[in-house]
């Protein structure tokens, strides 16, 4: 599946499953990176940056390393409003769709 299409479908699935427009909202790029690391795991993002030859500032490396093992699982985004939509298969699909690999 094309990477852009997978992300588009994942965003659509997030809206349907969790009744939210976005899971990750930060005030600035560093807070956005922190929230992304908390959601997907900092080690996964560090590995991606290394594979894709993306240089991070020392500050951003510290943010990712501090959250290297942390990860929020999809069930933690469930609420009373969206609880009736929870589905472990859908969460698994969403997780797989949002895995990014450098080309």
Describe the structure.
The protein has 103 residues and is an all-alpha fold. The chain has one domain (3-97): Transferase(Phosphotransferase) domain 1 (Transferase(Phosphotransferase), domain 1), CATH 1.10.510. It has helices at residues 3-18, 29-40, 42-51, 58-66, 88-97.
In a nutshell, what does this entry contain?
The chain is mostly helical and 103 residues long.
> Roughly how much helix do the residues carry, as a percent range?
55-70%
Write out the CATH superfamily name.
Transferase(Phosphotransferase) domain 1
**Strand count, sense and closure of the main sheet?**
none
**Cα-atom Rg, whole angstroms?**
14 Å
Primary descriptors:
single chain, 103 residues, mainly alpha, Transferase(Phosphotransferase), domain 1, 5 helices, 55% helix, globular
SSE topology sketch:
Elements: H1 3-18, H2 29-40, H3 42-51, H4 58-66, H5 88-97
């Amino acid at each position: 599946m094309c990477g852009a299409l997978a992300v588009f479908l994942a965003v659509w699935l997030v809206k349907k499953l969790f009744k939210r427009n976005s899971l990750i909202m930060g005030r600035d790029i560093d807070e956005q990176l922190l929230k992304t690391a908390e959601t997907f795991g900092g080690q996964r993002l560090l590995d991606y940056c290394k594979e894709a030859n993306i240089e991070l500032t020392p500050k951003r490396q510290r943010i990712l390393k501090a959250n290297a093992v942390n990860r929020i699982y999809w069930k933690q985004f469930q609420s009373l409003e969206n609880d009736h939509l929870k589905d472990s298969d859908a969460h698994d699909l969403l997780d797989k769709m949002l895995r990014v690999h450098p080309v």
